[in-house]
Amino acid sequence: MSYVDRLRARERELGRPVRIGLVGAGQMGLGFVVQAARIDGMEVAAIADIAPDRGVRAFARAGRGDVRTDGDLASAVERGQAVVVDDALALTHLPVDVIVDASGVPEVGARVAFAGLLAGKDIALLNVECDVTVGLLLSRMAAGLGRVYTVCRGDEPVECKALVDYARDIGFTVVCAGKGKNNPLDPTATPDSVAAEAAAKGMNPHMLASFVDGSKTMIEMAALANGVDLRVSRRGMTGPYSTVDDLGKIFRPEADGGQLPEAGVVDYCTGPVAPGVFVIGHCDDPVVVEEMAYLGMGPGPYYTFYRPYHLASVEAPLSVAQAVLDRTPSLAPVAWNAEVLAVAKRDLVAGELVDGIGGETVYGITDSAEAAREGGHVPLGLVSGARVLRDVPAGTVLTSADVAIDETTTIASLRRLQDRLLQGEPVRDLVAA
């Protein structure tokens, strides 16, 4: 039975649809609101945005004009009225089933996810930036509370995980999993340098800068590595140019003529593979090799499994359905193999403040969690608002000797708990702390 059939059945049984509280009504949030409105059995019941008018406009685009912004908002939700608030944490006090965070801000995601789980809500993130910083703690916490924590469908890590699961399910060894990068890599890109392109595309320039400078790709591949238990072969991965036809030739170990230092890793490429995702599977059994050749999959033993698209907010509601109906995540960390480290985008001067992802001061680069820990490096998701302690040349992978993060933030507090979790402390004790 399809998800929509099951959602309809659930609505008939309970007398109401799945209620969603959404954080952020920007580009991704607007897309989510409109798409969810087209799916029977679910509805966005409330939107939180620091600019409430944006939430009201999002509801209007989805065909809902009777919006409440004050009074007894919980009762309004129960009656099926649309609600808009300016505080994301207010969603945790409303009778919604799932909170979806589309803010893209790590600190907002951490606050909402932590408070939402404690309030008995399932959590779905269109905020991979938060997941690669504290996702392991949130996932373990959700499991202990009987809730679901997930990264949403439509983003490359989740759609690539589906290919990983498929390849493994049919008996192939996963050599590499990755994505095509849409934009040429320019680590120095800033909101100002991409402003004209962002305006032409109707995008937030900070978001576009995070795509062009590589941060978003690094974040997505780290989330994938942690979500399917693959590794990062080297800092920054390899990132070659490739066509779809050449994926299986390039993303194989160097010993077999490819460019990978080792098998069982995540990576990315530039070129016409974007906006798709791919998995390279290996099988050298003669019977399988012969059958795959007959089926048009090439000579082997390396095979390309490819999906030519990912549909962002259009697919994201599927994760809400999966969480509510199956009680499973679309993607959540099962290991902590990868980190995204902050790198100085330009020369940094002692005393200045770091502006964070997609800004003017830093970009992200993926490395193994072990290398990050041994080098004392600072995760990208923690650097917003950090103070530079000493002059740092451009290209420096920042450490705790270079910047002092703001330890008062929720995400910094959760990161300290996650570090303790990785050292073997029980999550039940950590949540109490």
Automatic annotation (TrEMBL):
A Pfam family annotated for this chain is DRL_cat
Q: What is this protein called?
A: Homoserine dehydrogenase-like protein
Q: Which SMART domains match?
A: SAF (SM00858)
Lineage: superkingdom: Bacteria
Q: Domain named SAF: which ranges?
A: 339-404
Record the organism: Amycolatopsis thermophila
